[in-house]
Structures are given as structure tokens and as C-alpha cells.
């Protein structure tokens, strides 16, 4: 299990944010292309405490392993989301989808995402651009190793607090409906 502390910064200008990161000397980690399959119980839009996804990805054009992850929300206060992630590798998306359907889950959506990643002050910055039909607006996730750095980094990047949210992608998608 991995624990993550994250926020999303909405209403970003991609080029402007990348320029700020580069100016500050952030380390470029690469560009990831993802296909995310998200699942929910058949009679519900979501799990009560998180979500389940299959993610296939490539980093800088090289295919990576396929992952099945349950992302459990354990805390959501002060605009920061705390998640436990339970991840395992799988080798067949179609077989895993069949297994999940057999135990009462349904595929909620499949979405493509481009992720541009940087590391600055040991914190991870991911600029996420989803396929328009899933979520049309780019945003940036910041994963913190130290929650005490949040205010410092938001100030340093001149991020307006009204654009900061702890909502998951599923919550953002639902809000748009």
C-alpha cells in the first residue's frame, strides 16, 4: 500500500505552468500516455470510499506494466486529499474486466490522459490532460511528501487558493454533469 497526499490545481494554463516549473529548476520526469478504465458497483456511481481503475501507460513512448488500483480516500480536509493506494500488476485488461464484471462491478468510463510530470523540492507535479469527453479542462496534481510544504509551494507558484481542490477525478466529472 502506498499513501499519497495530493491536491489538484484547476484552471491552469499548461504552457505557463510548465514555464514556471522550468524557471524554478524543476526536474522533468517525462510524458506519460495513459488509458484509464474506471469501475463502480453495478447499482452505484461509485464506491463509498474511493474508486477502482485499470491503468495502462507508456512513458516517453515505452510501454509500462498494466496496473489495477483501488484508490481509497482516507481523509479529505484542509484542501488536501489523503489516499491509500492498493496496486497490483495484471497482464490482461480484458480478463480483468471480465472478472470485475462477474463480481458485480461495471466499467464506468474509459479515458485517455496525457500526463506531463516534474519534480520540485521533492514534490511531484503532474499536469493532466484528459480526453475531452471525460474531462475537458487540464489541471495539475501536486503530490506532497510533506503536507507542511503545501502553502509554501502554492505561494511560490502564485496559485490562487480558489483553484485548489481535494476532489478526485470522479468527483470532478460528476460535478460537470
Give the SSE layout:
Elements: E1 2-9, H1 14-23, E2 27-41, E3 50-59, E4 62-63, E5 66-77, E6 80-90, H2 93-102, E7 105-120, E8 123-130, E9 139-144, H3 150-156, E10 164-165, H4 169-176
Antiparallel strand pairs: 1-6, 1-9, 1-10, 2-3, 2-7, 3-4, 3-5, 5-6, 7-8, 8-9
Number of DSSP E strands = 10
Mean pLDDT score: 93
Question: What is the CA-based Rg, rounded?
Answer: 16 Å
Helical element count?
4
Helix content: 10-25%
Low-pLDDT regions: none
Compact description:
The protein has helices spanning 14-23, 93-102, 150-156, 169-176; strands at 2-9, 27-41, 50-59, 62-63, 66-77, 80-90, 105-120, 123-130, 139-144, 164-165. The protein has 177 residues and is an alpha+beta fold.
What would you note in describing this structure?
With 177 residues, the protein is an alpha+beta fold. Helix content is 20%, strand content 51%. The protein is built from four helices and ten strands, in the order E-H-E-E-E-E-E-H-E-E-E-H-E-H. Strands 1-6-5-3-2-7-8-9 form an eight-stranded antiparallel β-barrel.
Provide keyphrases for this structure.
20% helix, globular, single chain, 177 residues, alpha+beta, eight-stranded antiparallel β-barrel
